[in-house]
Amino acid sequence: MPAVHQPQYEVHVPPSDSDVPAASTSVCEVVKNLDSVVSHIPSGTLDPVVDIMSACDPKVLNPRTAISTIGEYINKALPLFHLHFVLAADATLISVSWGHVAMDGLGCGHIVTAWEEELNGLPAAAIYDDPDPATLFDFTNDIYVDPKWTRPGWIRLTTWDFAKFFAFYLYESYWYPRVDGQIFITKALVDHWQKNAKKELPANEWVSRNDLVLAWAMKYAWTYFPENEILVMFNSICLRGRHPQLPQSVITNTATSYTTPPLTNLEIRNKSLTQLALTIRQSVNVFTDTDYVGKVLAVEHRRVKANNGGIDWFPMGSLKAQHFGTVSWAKIGLSSVKFGKELSTVATTTYSTRRQCATVIDSEEGDFRLEAKLPTQAWKLMQVQMEIEKQNLKV
Asked: What does the domain layout of the chain look like in residue ranges?
């Protein structure tokens, strides 16, 4: 019996003759203003009218986790990407979730471009002439990448590594069970941190309020672990038009993932809050290097075509590292290296890294709410530290 030929789709979209939808949408209507959804909620008060996280169906928002081949993707009729709208009285919040494929960036790019124009009151300067998605990354064919090249902060795991990781995961889950919780960080406290940061940093450096909040969580959430315990923050950033050969409207999800430099607990303890926040912010600097982004695009694009997006690189620290991840969404719709300096944050949604999740919600008033799934020890230590911070604020 002849073998059935399985076409190798170069883009992760259903073929033109398929009935599978290319995208799915969901809409929540809120009669109040948008800040009822994303603003800081004082301790003891009611939850927001709409909890953004509860509106997201992980099976829909993360279809790549449920499939292994493009055939299975099509057979399960999973959408390419998901748009979630929160329609409030004063504004509309759009959240976008898509797979590991940069091709989805075309649609995301148009949304963000329109958002930027609306935010800044600018008319559309031009209608972007986007190429065919199937040829969008053809320029990567001319980019040479050494076979031994890897992204900084990333490693390739062996079968033995996976086994050790699974064993440690079971051990940690038993001895350090995670519980959901939240901690409130007032605008006054973040202002205090930022004031201290300006004094400590050189004139040509800066950190955002979001950097400071994430640094605080990273600094105090795992202080009960040994000094040599490695910690790393696994983050994600979507950069529009970073490579000169990509149209401005394209957001690539192949050049997104990065980690902060792996640090031991002792190193984190010895760093000031400002120094740690600067480390987090500077983690994105590599994405300003056109050569680096070109290599990442080339490697990812080739891997996607070869094995349909199978994962073979993991953040350094995946093994026995206490790491958590975030995906930062700025007012323009997606994270930007400028946010906190030229852009203000509306909300940061959760990116789950199996064991830890951190959701940082920043209201336009400047208050923060940190939601996470952490061990009880971590919550107790952060509560103690927060009382210390409040006392320092009064001095």
From this structure: 23-394
pTM for this prediction: 0.63
Dig out the tokens for 80 from the structure: 């390419």
Instruction: Evaluate whether the domain defined by 23-394 bears CATH number 3.30.559.10.
Output: yes
- In the chain, pLDDT over 90 holds for what percent of residues? 6
Token representation of residue 242: 């970073």
At residue 356, the 3 state secondary structure works out as: strand
Around Cβ 25, how many Cβ atoms within 10 Å? 12
DSSP per position, 283-319: TTGGGG-HHHHHHHHHHHHHHHHHHTT----EETTTT
Token look-up 């080739």 returns 302
CA distance 278 to 270: 14
The answer to whether the beta carbons of residues 297 and 252 sit under 8 Å apart is: yes
Which residues make Cβ contacts (< 8 Å) with residue 284, sequence separation at least 6? 237, 258, 337
Which pLDDT tens digit goes with each residue over 160-177? 877 776 777 777 778 877
Distance CA 180, CA 182 (A): 7
- The token pair at 148 is 């031994």
